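Subject: Integrase catalytic domain-containing protein

B.,
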Amino acid sequence: MKATAFIRKTASKNDTNSVATIYFRLRDGKKDIKAASELTINPNHWSSEKQGYKDRVALVSEEKKQALNNEVQNILNLINQNYTPESDSEWLSTLIDKYHHPNRYKTKEEIEAENKPMLLELFSEFLVKHKLSEVRKKNFRVIQRTLARYELYVRATKKGQKDFILDVDTVTPETLRDMWDFFENEYQYYELYPSIYETIPEKRTPQPRGKNTLIDCFSRIRTFFLWCFDNKLTANRPFDKFPIEECKYGTPIYINLEERDRIFNADLSATPQLEIQRDIFIFQTLIGCRVSDLYRMTKLNIVNGAVEYIQKKTKEGNPVTVRVPLNDKAKEILERYKDHEGKLLPFISEQKYNEAIKKIFKLSGVDRIVTILDPLTRDEVKKPLYEVASSHLARRTFIGNIYKKVKDPNLVSALSGHKEGSKAFRRYRDIDEEMKKDLVKLLD
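Prediction pasted inline below.
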């Protein structure tokens, strides 16, 4: 069997406008069948020997010549691959038409499968359509970028997976386990496969992720899959056989009022910038807000002797105005910075603020040993307080000390902005050492 391409039309030597249809011919013994294609060429440019353009055709670009030559070869290859002794002229015409118009011959299901959005496309749709606060959207986008890097990682490292794309219909519990490994060890892959991170970068280089962080990441991925299932975008539920355990947290660490006052009264005049950040930290312990809410505050947030704000975390979900009356210490701090323009207080970046807090604790002598859970191993470790101090410790200090005084979660959550039934808030209810002593005395 031999397949060739040919044209039937000729043109005068200087004719550059005529166009000839390219035909295909199949000969096998006595069989000789022909069919027209939709490919065309000027007769003076055709080379029957090369089955395409002549080598030297000045008026045609190399790209156009190569494109037509490739199409001719594609059809010839199709003929050679699909020919059987029963093939006839109708078969040849249909084969060529199918090459030019493949969708004419596809079922509705095949077309839908080809046009089906892949997982990362659906993830973008999820971020638009699913009701999420801007803070949560930001967290989900981190997950989305990591999943995109996972695709590149699989293509680069798995045999036979050069075209790997995450498909919401085909993700299995085994896929999730492999994804977990990538999320957990991404900080190592960053060094082994730098091109992945050049393609989809982050502001900060990947750091080791602890168990709680991994649980949080995969809880978000599970939320996405449930959204796809609920919206009939997939029937796949891979998390049904991929259980996610609960996050494990230690007792919230906070400083008592004596330690807070030691920091407030410490002489930091030798380091003026630390002195300013100390005031900001103490102010945060007196109003109990998250650092993201603190940094958005201006003098307009001070209303009739209280600070009023809508939490950024819940702003778009169920916005509630939190109002915290200012005590004398808080008013004294605001008075110190009454001439500061713009934001409520002279804030620096959150990262530098956290670094300053650790230095402030150490210089103030607030260095008692505390027991915390290591975020990576989840084992108990002992550390001096100044090593674990951060902006969130200010919020915990506000909540913990008020709860010790009133022991009424409804009153405390009204000031802290925690919603009813919050798991995070329940951890603040741990019975402190003084309360334990009082309970033991009941046995005397």
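The longest strand covers residues 31-41.

T.
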